[in-house]
Design a protein that fits this description.
The complex is a heterodimer. Chain A has a domain of 159 residues: Rossmann fold. Helices cover 36% and strands 30% of the residues of chain A. Chain A is built from 7 helices and 10 strands. In chain A, α5 runs parallel beside α6. The two termini of chain A are 20 Å apart. The mean pLDDT of chain A is 88. Chain B folds into 2 domains: 192 residues, no CATH class; 206 residues, no CATH class. Chain B has a 6-stranded mixed beta barrel, surrounded by 4 helices. The radius of gyration of chain B is 31 Å and the shape is elongated. The mean pLDDT of chain B is 86. The chains are: A alpha/beta, B alpha+beta.
């Protein structure tokens, strides 16, 4: 079942008098429950592509369709709501809210979505236990290691049961052990929750774990292959 | 949850928040305490003016105030005084004659307004009689501190209001006038005046008492004698009156009573204390405006500090704000969060400042602030050198509102700055 479709997506930046084609006619489909990595060298366009998939940037040309919604046609206010209900984000620098505990960080989006308290609490507990932080629910990010913070970020991204999770270099700031640990957890949650994960990464350890690898170069898809 | 985040965010950089809060606290203490001093001075001045000088309401012949002719007496003053005195709102009425005279001692002479009063009635309307007996300060000024000696001094030197059994013509004068004429209690003074028929007349009066109030101009220009004595000197009917001075039971009744009396007695001029001393009325009204003006200036200055702090907050948290907007926090919520942070930051300092100012005002409101060293200057403009700061509860409420308003206004620029961010750029994410 297709949940995300990119149809001839272009992104052109006007820099001084030169036009930069960051994304140059990309067509891609993602199914429900995929665990895909977008790889490519710096400047290949993977950042821009993920920004557009996440609704943080608009394509110059082409369509991005999530389920049946053309996200390029949404008004800015609707787009924010659309992101909140449909897309989970995991950032390279974790970006947790430092004044909130792990549990409160996970509950934050559910709060914005006005979930009842008991459901919020049950879901945050379930997710934090799933990422192995059942005993750190009341810790603030400042008291946690990078790996632990990124696991909270994964739990937060999954909290409101989005259609897919976009992860920007999620392991870039982690050591090998934390990376292995995080990838195992994400793979497990991908199976359990049947949520699509799309990563951008340079990290071979992430690439090895991905079930599908999309290679981008010069704003175009070079290869798109499944991996066993 | 936005409330909770905003409150927690305030304490992220404790030192910086504390500096802003302390600035707001000091600003509030300074502003409110200064306002309370001015308000206390003004209220005290009004109270004393009513108590000693004007009473609440005065009734005159319509032309008396512009041209103080002896003939401009109030028609049927006795009946009018009796009727007004029986009104529910009225505490007492004093029927007075008021004549410009020359007063002379063996040393010098000067012009004063001589009020002919019935001491019994006058005691109920003005408190000049207390300004004589309560003048322990005068005794201290003469270097007398022992209680027994103070009492003797008051009896022998400051005198009494009017002695009931005295046969001589008695006069009660102000301290300033006594000093100018170089007279003491029991001294004789000569009063010269024009009678009702235009001839000159005069009489000898013995100083019965010297009053001391906070208005040295009044002390210097107003003297009191018995009404019948003044009537016999001027040839006026002792039952007639140039002025009916009315004391009400409640200050707030002044405007409605002025209207009521003017309606009942259209042939006379009914004046409130504000009409009698327009400068005083104007000062109190302006003072109210000035108090808020002071606070607005203080809050404006603080507002710029708050804007600066909140801009720093926003700039420091660009990435976090970008993340919040990326994951679904809409603009209204981001704006609300920054606005709430600003309000919490300001109101915390404001509440502490108001509490400390409240305690200070409560303490000094009863103990007073003694500025005796500047008494000459204060008394020259009718104010007591003993200040009792005071401020109404409504002032605190208004100040709270103003602080919140300042915080809201101060939050707009930083919040707009935050809202203009593009989440992707703010995050510098390479998704």
């Amino acid at each position: 079942m297709k949940i995300l479709r990119l149809d001839n997506v272009h992104k052109i930046y006007d820099e001084s008098e030169v036009q930069v084609h960051a994304v140059n006619g990309i067509d891609l489909d993602f199914d429900k429950g995929e665990f895909a990595a977008i790889v490519g060298p710096s400047g290949s366009g993977k950042t821009t592509l993920l920004n557009m998939i996440g609704g943080l940037d608009q394509p110059t040309r082409g369509e991005i369709i999530v389920d049946s919604t053309h996200i390029g046609q949404l008004k800015p206010s609707r787009l924010i709501d659309f992101r909140m209900y449909n897309i989970g984000f995991v950032f390279q620098a974790y970006n947790l809210i430092p004044v909130l505990t792990a549990r409160e960080n996970v509950e934050f989006i559910m709060h914005l979505q006005k979930w009842p308290k008991h459901k919020r609490q049950a879901r945050s507990k379930e997710l934090l236990e799933a990422v192995g932080l059942g005993d750190r629910m009341d810790s603030r990010p400042g008291k946690m290691s990078g790996g632990q913070q990124q696991r909270v970020a994964v739990a937060r991204a999954l909290a409101s049961k989005p259609k897919f999770v976009l992860a920007d270099e999620p392991t870039a700031n982690l050591d090998s052990r934390s990376t292995e640990n995080l990838l195992d957890i994400m793979e497990q949650l991908n199976r359990q929750e049947q949520v699509t994960f799309i990563f951008s990464t340079h990290d071979n350890r992430v690439v090895k774990k991905a079930h599908r690898i999309v290679t981008i170069e010069d704003g175009q898809v070079k290869t798109d292959e499944p991996q066993k | 949850m936005i409330f909770s985040i905003a409150w927690k965010n305030v304490w992220r950089n404790r030192m910086r928040s504390m500096i802003v809060m302390i600035a707001v606290t000091i600003g509030m203490i300074g502003g409110i305490f200064a306002s309370a001093i001015f308000k206390g001075m003004s209220d005290q001045r009004v109270k004393e003016a009513i108590k000693y000088e004007t009473s609440h309401i005065q009734i005159h012949h319509p032309r008396f105030k512009e041209n103080q002719e002896l003939a401009y007496t109030v028609d049927s003053a006795r009946e009018m005084a009796a009727l007004i005195g029986s009104m529910e709102e009225v505490a007492a009425v004093s029927s007075r004659l008021e004549v410009p005279v020359m007063i002379k001692s063996s040393a010098t002479g000067t012009g004063v307004q001589l009020l002919g009063v019935d001491p019994g009635q006058e005691r109920k309307v003005t408190d000049i009689h207390q300004a004589i007996y309560d003048s322990a300060r005068v005794a201290r000024q003469f270097g007398i501190s022992e209680p027994k000696r103070i009492r003797r001094f008051l009896r022998d030197s400051v005198g009494q209001y009017f002695r009931e059994r005295s046969r001589s013509h008695q006069i009660v004068i102000g301290q300033e006038l006594a000093e100018q004429l170089k007279v003491d209690v029991k001294s004789k003074v000569v009063v010269n005046l024009q009678t009702a028929d235009g001839s000159l007349s005069g009489g000898v009066f013995r100083v019965a008492g010297i009053y001391r109030i906070t208005n040295s101009t009044f002390e210097n220009t107003m003297a009191f004698v018995r009404k019948d004595a003044l009537a016999s000197l001027t040839g006026l009917d002792p039952g007639s009156a140039h002025e009916l001075a009315i004391r009400l039971k409640d200050n707030r009744q002044v405007p409605p009573m002025v209207s009521k009396l003017q309606r009942i007695y259209p042939q006379v001029q009914v004046m409130s204390w504000k009409d009698i001393q327009p400068s005083l009325g104007m000062v109190t009204q302006w003072l109210d405006v000035m108090l808020y003006f002071i606070m607005v200036i203080i809050l404006l200055a603080l507002g710029f500090g708050i804007v600066n702090t909140m801009l720093m907050v926003v700039m420091e948290r660009v990435k976090e704000l970008g993340m919040l907007m990326a994951i679904g926090m809409n603009r209204v919520r981001v704006f609300t969060m920054i606005m709430l942070e600003t309000i919490f930051l300001s109101i915390t300092g404001g509440v502490v400042g108001m509490a400390i100012a409240g305690v200070l005002i409560r303490y000094f409101g009863s103990a007073g602030i003694n500025l005796e060293a500047f008494s000459k200057g204060f008394e020259a403009i009718g104010y007591s050198p003993m200040l009792y700061p005071q401020i109404g509860a409504s002032f605190y409420l208004t100040i709270t509102g103003l602080i919140i308003l300042t915080a809201i206004v101060a939050s707009i620029y930083p919040a707009v700055k935050a809202l203009r961010m593009n989440p992707a750029e703010a995050l510098r994410i390479e998704i």
